[in-house]
Structures are given as structure tokens and as C-alpha cells.
Amino acid sequence: MIKDILKEAEARMRAALQSLDDDLAGIRTGRASPALVERLQVEYYGTPTLLMQLASISAPEPRSLLIKPFDASSLKGIERAILTSELGLTPNNDGKQIRLNLPALTEERRHELVKVVHHRMEECRISVRNVRRDLHNDMRDFEKEKLISKDDLERGEEELQKTTDHWIEEINKHGQKKEQEIMEV
Predict the structure, then answer these.
(1) N or C: lower Cβ tally within 10 Å for the chain?
(2) Which residues contact 50 (CB under 8 A, 6 or more apart)?
(3) In the CATH scheme, what is the code of domain 2-24+106-183?
(4) Residue 49 burial (CB count, 10 A)
(5) Each residue of 29-61: pLDDT tens digit?
(6) CATH 1.10.132.20 domain range(s) in the chain
(7) For 31-101, which CATH class?
(8) Maximum C-alpha span of the chain
């Protein structure tokens, strides 16, 4: 039983880190990357849809992105999603595709992006700690119901804490790596 709980903890904490990585990919560094916009929500026939499902996104040059919608009618929605996003980019629409030119990051903007990274890291750490709390409560319930012994509970708590510490450290590593990318001129 404890092993199952620890496996679940591992899986859920890994998923939280994966979610953080996806979020961090969308925070821009000096280079243009399709990951910057592919997760934007676009209103498409009344349904919020990911941009990567509506268009092909490429980086023809280091500081620009080219978005070619599969359906020309989605162009306005894509443009609106980019304008309302926190990216601070202005789309150039030629009627068939959208070009995004990424200006060089100012020192001030870099510091703002680092704050965003720290905020996302903290959200992820909270998520990992919530997983620990939920599973810790499950272990206590098992012990109350006499499904596991007091010793098993203590060993399980110890292992759960080790797992939590490991994933918090991973979150910190990923965040520091992204922070270095952002601050790199």
C-alpha cells in the first residue's frame, strides 16, 4: 500500500514539473521559439483552442516567428489572442499569415520575466506540497483503519518527504536554468 502511494506521489509530482517546464517554455528568452506561442488559447468558433492546433508555427529567423493558420478564418482570433496575451508582442497580419517580431529584451523586461519564472516555480512547489499533503492524509487514514502499522506509516512519511524534497529540488534546478537563459544577453 505504501509503495502504491509513493508511486502515485512520484507520478503526480513529475506531472507538476512537466507542467512547469511547459509553462517555462512559453516565457521568452533572447531567441524566437514556437513554444512561446503554441499554448496560447485562441477563440475558434466559440471554443478556446490551442494555437498549435490551429496553425503551423515556425521561427524563420532568430528574432521572428511565422504563424500560418490552417483555416484563414481563424486569423483574426489568433491575432486577438496574441494581443491580449502577456507576451507584449504586436502581430503583423498580411491576410494569410502572422509575423511576430521579437524585440531585444531590455534589462527591465528581463527582471520582469525572472519574476514570472519565480511565480510559476512557487505555484509548482505548492502543487507538489499539496500532493504530499493529500497522500500523507491517505497514509494516516490507512493507519487509522489498521490497514498499515504505525511503523509502516512512519517509514511511508519519511519516504514521501524524501520524494517531495527531490521534486522541489528539481523544480529549483529547472527554474534556475530558465532564469539564466533569460538573463543571458
Answers:
(1) C
(2) 38, 39, 40, 41, 42
(3) 1.10.132.20
(4) 18
(5) 667 788 888 888 899 998 999 989 999 999 888
(6) 2-24+106-183
(7) alpha beta
(8) 68
C-alpha cell at 23: 509553462
- Alpha-carbon torsion angle 106, 20, 129, 155, nearest 10: -130
Domain with CATH 3.30.1360.40 in the chain: 31-101
pLDDT tens, position by position, 114-143: 888 899 899 999 999 999 999 999 999 999
Q: Give dist(CA 65, CA 86) in Å, integer.
A: 16
